[in-house]
Amino acid sequence: MTIRKKLFIFIPLLVLLMSSVSFFLFRSGKTVQESYHLMMNRILLYKEISYEVGENMRSTNRYIVQMDTESKPEIIKHLEAVKRLRSELDSLATIGPSDLPLVNYRNIIDTFIEQAEGMITQIDNHDSNTIAGEYIEAMQTQRFIREEAQELVDLELGQYKPIYQEMMFTSERLNHLGILLVITVAALSILLAIWLSESITGPIRRLVATAKQISKGRMDTKAPESVSNDEISILCRAFNGMIDNIQRLMAENMNSLEKDRLVKELELKTLQSQINPHFLFNTLNSISKLAYIEGATKTSDLAVSVSRLLRYNLQKLDQAVTLREEVENVTEYINIQKARFRDRIKFVMDIDERALDSMIPCLTLQPILENAFVHGIEQMESGAVLKLAIGYSEDGVEVEIRDNGVGMNAETVKMLLESIREESSRFGGRKGQTTGLGTHNVFKRLHLFFDGQEQIDIESAEGTGTAVLFTLPYRMSAS
Fold first, then answer.
1. Please, are residues 300 and 289 in contact by the beta-carbon 8 Å criterion?
2. N or C: which end of the chain has fewer CB within 10 A?
3. At what angle do helices 72-89 and 100-125 cross, to 10 degrees?
């Protein structure tokens, strides 16, 4: 049985049991209350009639003694109350074996009503002597009403005594039965709650214990699976399946690590057979000093430029540098190209010093310059111009790398801006003369470094040259 079905069955069952006990106690109490209410209503009716008759007579007495005309509305009001209560007497059932006492009581009240109406008539006629005589008769009738009401109350109490005793006995029995039912339902509810919670929390505790063992590295532990087909059992089976998958992946990972270790050993042996870049850097420094000693200053400067360029390129590409360092590196690259092509190419630099302290990814400018040189102006015999301009504005740092070479068509420009992962065939060749970092690589590193806040644009047309434009946020060093 699933947990969902258990909850849907047992919780409504508990609610139904408690509701049944509550309804039984309510109905029993209501029966007793109705019987008591009936008895009290009859007695109170007798008492209220006696009260209204007495008030009527007291108001009449004030009028006779004090000749207070303001007493007449009070006389009429109490008389109307007596008539209303008299009509309620007609709906009362007979008490005892005979209805004679109740009939006599009604007749006496009718007599009093006639006498009271007669006194009101004499009040209107201002006949004081007649009013006094009728007042004495009405006083006698009032005494009879009080005596008959007391007899009826005594009769009611006598008739209701066994009923009242039965009511008390029934109430006591219901109280004992109610207590017994509440205790029984409470005990049953506790037992059902314990069984239901244990059927849910027990497997969960075992599953938690298994998870703790696995967190300690004991991957051979398995969660106990229950024979029932509830959600916890399904979770335990899925948990055990996850453990099996982890063990399998760990075994595959160990095999992969062993293969990687062997590959690393092969790579290390391969590297040992290659020229150490730092050895080459030190050798260039030695050549530079030797050329300077021998008086070949241009050769010495060229060796220094190559040495500095090599040292800069040995840095990790994920490092951030200042624009000043990038410009210095580009200057060394330009010195090397000047030594190679002499007057065939003219290099122009327009640098705003305020922008040079901004941070930028390492090796950002040189690959763009290399690309412009190799694919734009290298084949030109004369008149080639390569320009680097760096400006400062409120929007950030603006970098422009422009050449007057062969240029590109609109389709190539669009492909270069939109494509990030693939290198086009136009920019994929002749890696032997560049750093090997493509234009797309530079764009992607700028995008990651500036969180997409950079702006990159390319202006180009066939035969008129190419301009790569960067607008970069001004970012200071964290240190």
1. yes
2. C
3. 160
CA distance 307 to 318: 21
Interval 340-356: pLDDT, tens: 777 788 889 999 999 99
Q: Are strands 455-461 and 465-472 parallel, antiparallel or unpaired?
A: antiparallel
Q: Which domain holds residue 184?
A: 3-193
- What is the Cα gyration radius of the chain? 57
C-alpha dihedral sign at 326, 332, 333, 337 = positive
Q: Distance (Å, rounded) from C-alpha 321 to C-alpha 329?
A: 11
pLDDT > 80? residue 108: yes
Per-residue confidence (pLDDT) for residue 309, from 0 to 100? 67
* pLDDT of 238: 81
CA–CA separation, 49 and 146 (whole Å): 9
Looking at the structure, do residues 155 and 49 belong to the same domain, yes or no? yes
CB 315 within 8 A of CB 362: yes
Give the H/E segment covering residue 396. Answer: strand 396-403
Q: Give every CB contact of residue 165 below 8 A, 6+ residues apart in sequence.
A: none
Q: Is 430 exposed, middle or buried (0-12, 13-18, 19+ CB in 10 A)?
A: exposed
Residue 186 sits in the same domain as residue 241:
no
Q: Per the domain annotation, does 309 fall within a domain?
A: no
* Residue 14 in tokens: 């508990």
- Whether the pTM exceeds 0.85: the reply is no
- Spatial contact of 157 and 47, defined as CB atoms under 8 Å apart: no
Contact assessment for residue 222 and residue 240, using Cβ atoms and an 8 Å cutoff: yes
